[in-house]
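ugh finaly. both done.
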Amino acid sequence: MLSVHRVHLPSEIPIVGCELTPYVLVKCADGSVVSGDVIELNPIRGHLLGYKWYRIQSDKKVAVCSVHPTEPATLQCLMCIKAKLPISKSYHCTSKCFSDAWQHHRVLHERAAVAANENGPDDDEVYGRLNSNASATSGAMYPAVITQRNGGETWFEVGHSKSYTPSADDIGHALKFDCFVIDAETKLPIGVPTSLTTSRVIPAPSPTPRQMVAVSGNDISGNPEVASRSFSGGSFTVLSYNILSDMYATTDQYSYCPSWALAWTYRRQNLLREIVSYGADIICLQEVQSDHYDDFFAPELDKHGYQAFFKKKTTEVFSGNANTVDGCATFFRRDRFSHVKKYEVEFNKAAQSLIDAIVPFPQKKTAFNRLIKDNIALIVVLEAKFSNQSNENPGRRQLICVANTHINVSQDLKDIKIWQVHTLLKGLEKIATHADIPMLVCGDLSAVPGSGPHSLIAMGRIDPLHPDLNVDPLGIVRPANKLTHQLPLVSAYTSFARAGNILALEQKKKIDPATNEPLFTNCTRDFIGTSDYIFYSADTLTVESLLELLDEGCLRKDTALPSPEWSSDHIALLAEFRLKPKNRR
């Protein structure tokens, strides 16, 4: 007879909006143990599995801390209530928690005050606020049914599938999962269910939205999606974001991050919410696993109007599951752009050609091990569906070339990083010779400002005395005068250093005056620095606005990234560009 051997969840802390799918082991009559679902269409010896989910609701209502959502709240910020902020933001577990979070928390009050002054009384003020107990999900497809009362607890049946996604109604309550064997013929349960009970459901942490800050013209700030849509004509927004592959998001590497916040079921929803909130016209993501691209990002962003391209890394070095190989994904809005051409750069192929051409046979194996790193670049040429407001050549196509890459190379192999960046730039130069086309180079270079790869892109050359050129056993970066390119590329975020409005001046505090680049785009317990960039061709594009940078102090309240609020160890970069009229180029 079939029996349930074991059930468990990847994370015992459920979060609103994040699907829970227990891992179920089934023991067959012959003693073998199998995993997976046993459904009506494919029963095992006349038996299948049934499931039920319950909300265990205590008569005592429990509020949870907005900073530490696994802790019960003991105090509430009354200023949040007065400002009509989401009530979940007002709770704190201790006075120390409230004090430590104040620098970040007061920003909520300030922005609520600005919004109130700009928008006037809201609908809640005019028509009266909803009862605080009103459910945001009262129209759920599976209505909760009271099935049992036990002392001060009530059990509500909330689902009968293997998976369940907690709703706002579940916040503060534990969930119970029952798995049981069913007779396929009678449809009746057999024996006692195998059960598990979760911790209390917590709300998904919601970071304070980052604002767009103008760096030219009038001061424009506010919701990124609204801001990016407020520009007319030949403007568009570009997002670059290393989202931290699940394969690398281990508890060993990020022990300071709660395990539930590292779980992919949570991180994917939090990342998607963040990415969609920016409303970018072009999105460049790095460290996207192949299976996550196919199963999640491509279909989910398709719902928001994006077309997608993906290039996974090559696998000469990689030895894991082929489905989890990460790569670069580029998305663009169908209503803003159409696809013209795609190029895929495999640095391993270029390395093999280089080895064959210049490396003597006895050294080929050593050269192969040094050069082959599986990195790639994805280049997409797009045609804009909007005008750059120029009367010159009104019927001419407006093309834009977007390169997306992750140069993931060990820090001691500086020659390989430089060579890979130079290989990419020479490819882009070939594209530029065939068309008057604006260029964008987005991604994670794993190289800090002023390093060899950064200097090569931003300056068009590397100083022959640069220390990154000191180690060159294969002779691939010497003489230094061969490391050049003619593309007029500038880092978008250096525009903060040149801007003069009040909000941009505030961002200057987060800019390194020595390089004009952000102080950091990558913040972990062991490293903080900049490795992510959006470069643009300054002869064809101007920067209109940039997404504000994050403050290190706010991130350090959770030790570092990733955290419950921000689900990658990198921060997203977002730039709004305007096409220069052709007669001004």
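ok and the 2nd:
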Amino acid sequence: MLQVVRNKGRNADLSSSNVMITYYVKRGRVEDARKVFDEMPERDVVTWTAMVSGYCQNGKIEEARKLFDRMPERNVISWTAMISGYIQNWRIEEAHILFDRMPERNIVSWNTMIVGYLQKGKLEYAQELFDRMPERNVVSWNAMISAYARRGKLDDACRLFEEMPERDVISWTSMVAGYAQNGRIDEAYKLFHKMPERNVISWNAMIAGYAQNSRIEDARQLFDEMPYRNASSWNSMIAGYVQNGRIEDAQELFDRMPGRNVISWTAMITGYAQNAQGEDALQIFSKMQEHGVKPNRATFVGILSACANLAALEQGKQLQGYSIKVGLQFDIFVGSALISMYAKCGCIDSAHQMFDETPGRDVVSWNAMIAGYAQHGFGNDALKIFDDMQRTGMKPNDVTFIGVLCACSHAGLVDQGLYYFDSIEQVHCVTPRADHYACIIDLLGRAGRLEEAKNIANNAKCEPNPSMWGALLGACRIHGNMELGKLAAERLFELEPKNAGTYVLLSNIYAADDRWEDAARVRMMMKNRGLKKQPGCSWIEFKNKVHVFLVGDRSHAQSEQIYSTLESLDRQMKQAGYVPDTKLVLHDVEEELKEHILYKHSEKLAIVFGIINIPSAMPIRIFKNLRVCVDCHTATKFISKIVEREIIVRDGSRFHHFKDGLCSCGDYW
């Protein structure tokens, strides 16, 4: 009787210690767990397995293996725990070696190994194991069906779905999601309608599918019909509105959402950033902080994009500091977003420093740096980064070549650009898309090779695209080719009849040739169609605030000082040889009035504000929503020399670095 009591006490102590080990492991306190383990007078297979799992879950795979090898006895759970540890730490080959050594396996062991291969993207290995399984359960079938569906191999997924002896809600949902993600949305709905039972994940998959396929009204109808919604349901619908450009509807749903999480806030921030409403994105981010929601990597990528588009450099710097505070300083996605932010805010040296400090650079990081140099007009630097990228063995993608071709275009590197364009398909096996053709048309057009540019637009191996013909129209405006400009405009009217920019460019081509009646006719056509020209504006950041100026703007608190300083500068510029380029004022008015119109352009007002307020040791960074005009470009060169300041201007397509009366673009833009 006494021995029975002793045994019960011993078993209770053992069980209690095992519970303590599990408790510490789940909280990441693996050293405390090991202390309990070492102090135990006796251990069973559960004890050893719990400790092995603990090391695996906390990334200490070598310690786990040492302990596993010391185990006096192992069961199938022990083996599976060690295999799972290798898989969690992306060491699939070692997992398979151990799997092959197992004296016996159960269905969990097989499923663990299959899922491991699927996580590594090795579908063929997973299929081989699946075929060898002595028995399968619904988890086995679902893993394979889901993998095939995600890969777009719907026929294989459907075959397995039909073959499986029993299905659960996950089986059905995997097929619904597969059809939806691959654009077969009506087939997805048919299957969804046939489901014997649905859970909230099934509904969410169908809603997300409709949203991804631009069937947003169908998505909303399903959302309204849902018997129960969770946070993912709301987030799917909000993301759907964002993806389809309906930011106001997304905001309305966000405001009604009962329990927002970081995904909800991030969706709204990203939505505003993508819809060129950066200030709204910053406001949402501020409210997110007020609610105590910790941002994740996607949040930082979205808000840094907003800062980049606004050229809000100081706020971008603060966000970099915040990312360090929350432990994301080495995150590759945040690093790439910071590279883009610094480049788009005019700090190309800071962008390169960030690039150098980003560990484990991926293709996005390289692309961000190439695009940054391209936008600044430093074509040779961009091509050097591209060469370095290839030397490291990093494979370029379609986005890489947009940056490379833009770099060649902005720097006038025509022969190199043509070489890289030909290499896209022939060397790198990447299919050129409309954006690549637009870049090469822009390259040739800027160089005055308009007929070649037109031929490429006519013979492109893709659907006609507004960006292609827009590049040609812009080149026609630069070189004054009216006939080809009319042809390009006609194509754009067919492809994008609601784009006011086409009408403005064609009108300007006519006006530059003194064909005022034709210019007026195009403007009237634009007016009759209810279209309005985007007003030119420039802005500058100072003391964490963005100051915006329009042409002739007198609303700023410092307007009197700005105009007084500008008048003084205008006199000094003319004494230094500056002559206003009045042919660029595309209005049929007197010469004196034309000079007056040029005098009040928004970028000049922003530059003068910078001269007044920004310390002389710092560069003045100006941002403009449209292409800088030739007169302002010339004037800024004179201003940079007179005030002995570096002035960096980002216009609608690129950066200009003005210093000592010169511009980095070499007057080629």
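summary for the 2nd one i guess: DSSP finds 36 helices and six strands in the chain.
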